Amino acid sequence: MGNDKDKKNLYLSVADLSTMGFAMVISIVLGLVIGLYLDNRMGTEPIFTLLFIFGGILSGFRIMYKNYMRFFRENKPDDSRK
Predict the structure, then answer these.
(1) pTM higher than 0.90 for the full model?
(2) Cα separations in angstroms, 13 against 23, 48, 72
(3) What distance in Å separates the CA atoms of residue 13 and residue 10, rounded to the nearest whole number?
(4) Local confidence band at 81 (pLDDT 50, 70, 90 cut-offs)
């Protein structure tokens, strides 16, 4: 019975960690789209695109860091097995 629970926890952990890459890609693409739109609208060719891509990268890393820290806070190794 415990083995099924361990498998379920493993699958949930893998799914949680896999969302980090997805969040990174979405953040960058969203920054690119917003930057391109603003540059085309205002005629400031690479300025907003670069700014929003950089912002998307920072946002993606922030999301990844928060998920990473939450994952390892919830899944601390059991030190009682020493």
Answers:
(1) no
(2) 16, 37, 10
(3) 5
(4) low
- Pair of tokens at residue 11: 């699958």
User: Both tokens of residue 66?
Assistant: 């928060």
Residue 27: other Cβ atoms inside 10 A = 21
What domain count does the chain have?
A: 1
Q: How much is the mean pLDDT over the chain?
A: 85
Distances from the Cα of 26 to the Cα of 2, 57, 60, 63, 81, angstroms = 36, 10, 8, 11, 40
Q: Is 39 a domain residue?
A: yes
Domain-embedded: residue 51 = yes
CB 53 within 8 A of CB 35: yes
Residue 19 domain boundaries: 2-75
What does the chain come to in residues? 82
**Angular region, 43: left φ>0, alpha ψ -120 to 50, beta rest:** left
